[in-house]
Amino acid sequence: MRRTLERPAASPALSAGVATMFGSGLSNQTGAAIGSLAFPVLGPLGVVAVRQYVAALVLVAVGRPRLRAFTWRQWWPVLLLAAVFGTMNLTLYTAIDRIGLGLAVTLEFLGPLSIALAASRRRLDAGCALLAAAGVVVLMRPQPSTDYLGMALGLTAACCWASYILLNRLVGRRIPGAQGSAAAASVSALTFLPIGVLVALGHPPTAEALLCAVAAGVLSSAVPYLADLLTLRKVPAQTFGLFMSVNPVLAAVVGRVVLGQSLGLPEWAAIGAVVAANAVSLAPR
Q1: 63-111 pLDDT, tens digit each
Q2: Long-range pairs for 208-214 at CB < 8 Å and ≥24 separation?
Q3: Mean pLDDT, rounded, for 119-137
């Protein structure tokens, strides 16, 4: 009887968590798509610079880092995290500019998938790795229109995301709350400050382009971060990781709707392979 009474209380919380995760993923990919509309004026570098500024403002407001209290043991992983944070966004946005939103996000998603597979010793996960690898082979198969530099940038973003996860764990163990992430975002924003100034001087931004870049920062940084904080209070971490696998699909759909970037059947099959590999690897053991 007690178990029956508990289920209705848990179900709305889980439903709310799933809805929040879906909204977070949709916001993230929509922000990237809107940001890419500013590429002709600001370029990926300028858009990423603005995104870093917005992310820093949000994270500092939430984390309120006490920078003067940090020791060198705390500072060095923060500095590495800042470097990875900036490089990850820059390589991803440049890849989006070259190969499209859906393919770029799918390649980037190999980063967290690699972390999940590396932590497991199941034979099934070896099959997941092969399935994901097959998807990558399909995406990178030689074609007259294949942009290998764009593909390489997507894979670089994947390496950065994997490093970002590992460094975030380390920073989280050494610095309480969100102070470490906020400090890393601040350092990254300061690094991009002169870059943003140079981009603005060389290519004066239009109001529309600047608005698109700011929207990318809000939708792809602020909204997902705050949504994830709320979601992790309602759903298990495994469920959270499993639901993240829909991001490549959301990116492909948003790329088609917002940017008119259509994908062929082989590309959809490759995206499905990467998503399926992640879903199976995170399934209950």
Answers
A1: 888 988 899 999 999 999 999 999 999 999 999 999 999 999 999 988 8
A2: 208/38, 209/37, 209/38, 209/40, 209/41, 209/42, 210/38, 210/42, 210/50, 212/34, 212/35, 212/37, 212/38, 212/47, 213/35, 213/38, 213/42, 213/46, 213/47, 213/50, 213/51, 214/50, 214/54
A3: 77
